[in-house]
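Lab meeting, action items carried over

1. Structure of the two-component assembly. Owner: GW. Status: complete.
Input record:
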Amino acid sequence: MSVDYKELKKDRATEWRQELRNSLSAKERIKGIRVKMSENDPEIRKTNFFEVNNGISAEDALTEAKRCLDCPTPTCISGCPVNINIHGFIKQIEKGDMKQAAIVLKSTNALPAICGRVCPQETQCEEQCMYNKLGLLPVAIGNLERFTADTERLSGEMSMPEIAAPNHIKVAIVGSGPAGLTTAGELAKYGYDVTLFEALHEFGGVLVYGIPEFRLPKEIMRVEIENLKKMGVKFVSNYIVGRTASFDDLKKDGFQAFFIGSGAGLPKFMNIPGENLINIFSSNEYLTRVNLMKAFRFPEYDTPIVRGKSVAVIGGGNTAMDSVRTAKRLGADRAMIIYRRSEAEMPARIEEIHHAKEEGVEFLNLNNPIEYIGDERGRVKQIRVQKMELGEPDESGRRRPRPMEGSEYLIDVDVVVVGIGTAPNPLIQQALPELEMTAWGTVVVNDQMQSVSRPDIFAGGDIVRGGATVILAMGDGKVAAEAMHHYLQGKKD
Amino acid sequence: MYKIVQREVLSENVVKLVIEAGQISKSRKAGQFVIVKLGEKGERIPLTIADSDPVKGTITLIIQRVGLTSHKFFNIKEGEEVTDIVGPLGLPTHIKKTGTIIAAGGGVGIAPLYPIAKAFKEAGNKLIVILAARSRDLIILEDEMKAFADEVLVYTDDGSAGTKGLVTAGVEHVIQREKVDEVVTIGPAVMMKFVALLTKKYNIHTLASLNTIMVDGTGMCGACRVTVGGSTKFVCVDGPEFNAHDVDFDEMLQRLGAYVEQEKIAYEDALSGMQGGSK
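Predicted assembly:
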């Protein structure tokens, strides 16, 4: 997506913005110290599932908003995958108009309360902030985003986007994760008759089954879904498009275009000996049991979970961090990350790694499991691990890990969670064999997120990208919705 | 919501439920299953669709009470509703005309075998059904199978019905009597293991439909993974049917016991609740 700098410039040139800018010199502004969000005590929080971060106060938000220099060339915006009008909403905070701040924010980001919590700002907007060039900590854009969204939600008065008159054209969204929710919202704004189909019994996709309560409270999801319902989006759970009914059945029912946002749900395993022993789980299973099925409240809830005392989580991404922190909360004495590269190469957000360490998670970096050993009942009891060292950079630019001869050793465990990534869900491919897919099972789309083999099918998020972020999925949804609108309007003429 | 329109107790521990599920009743094929959940706090479990009526918009599930969730299903009444049903899941059975088929079912495995046996018969095969269970009470769907099968043989451990003996005795009896082209077997993992060992000896292609632990049933959790022909497969999206000669049944048996202790806790917790405990 390209940034509309003209619009931003116009916005920045408004009288009140100029006045606000001149009310405090840049010299004064940079004296401000970056706000620090309060977090619950690690010793206490590691025993419960409540949200770790507490948000920032209105006072801190104002102080932080004043730090923003309202740059003529806002580099932060080009660092954002959906090009949120960042200085636009921050200056509304400084002005004191929280309602308007939320409106500006939501004009480009449909789910700011979620992005304010789960986006890796340190490698996106905040990395591009001017302050970095001055050798200072960047403006806490993520915290301000969260503050703006939370303030609006807690006020009980959510602003509704303008909705065009109904055009009675039916469109189907497959999957209710970040990509699907965004697309649904955008299409509702254009006036379409939008139905969102979800395979699980609850809506939200990875935001509900994958990301734990302590990072993203489910209440936030619930409110977002309520808002979409108010915008006219119909929600259908327990429905697998391609199975419960085929795409063609839905076509006969009047659906004229489809957006597939079914995600990358298929867990990857390492295919090493002993991996199918009992108490070795995919991170998907482990997190789904806890987050979606509420197994941490077993037996009040019927779904069980194995509460390990010594839990090893394999992988270095956010999902691995979510899993290991969940293990700690389920009562593990020893919860460890086993990662084959070093911390510098970890794909997880810095904040997640930091939180995990605070909560007592051990990091066995440059270690790689090569075999699992079970007891007489087939339950995992040990991992054979090999130490690694970093060699030359690979295709991803990260230094390639290579095993160190003779470095093998054993770790005692009673639960292992494999969090090394996921692949696209195969159900779509089974349902639509004519759809062009890559060798990795992702849908091939053009730059408008439109399938190259079926013009009525659009796709975005992890089913296209293989495994990316919430914000990129939302960006895709936005592009796809606009393209679907053009496609459907073109068809009508 | 999915309303129970008919409930029938088939044996001491087995109940048949006919449930309103309009769309699934039309799209499901033999061999496929659904994931069901009862109540907001319920667990998701897989159940094979035993039959369906696309005109009435119903599906039939046959459930044996073994754990907490199946107990709740056993106790459900006509007119009550199942909170969640999703499907059809899994790949349908590859039905073709091959000649003579043995459909060998054990215990509650007879229920998922029923639609597959019927489909094989409808495809023009000679169909010999072997039903086996511990005792007479546990033999289900005998009359329903007789309605279309060329022959139905019953085996019980205690000899209270049909011939005394295990299902493998029945399969071997037929194999020695006539040329068999394919065997389909569904039942407890240990039973399928021994059917597979037997038919391997005779080199007869054999399908087994596996019922493993699942959470989502759509390829997401990997709880259902089994080793087939040396590589890991997901029962939910790669199965539920596999070449029985390639399945590592010993591993599957172990994995089925993954939550034995938790199941006991849940069951006892529920019982104490029912008896007016403090819960």
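2. GW to write a short summary for the group page. Key points so far: Chain B touches chain A through 47 residues (CB under 8 Å). The CA atoms of residues 97 and 123 of chain B lie 6 Å apart.
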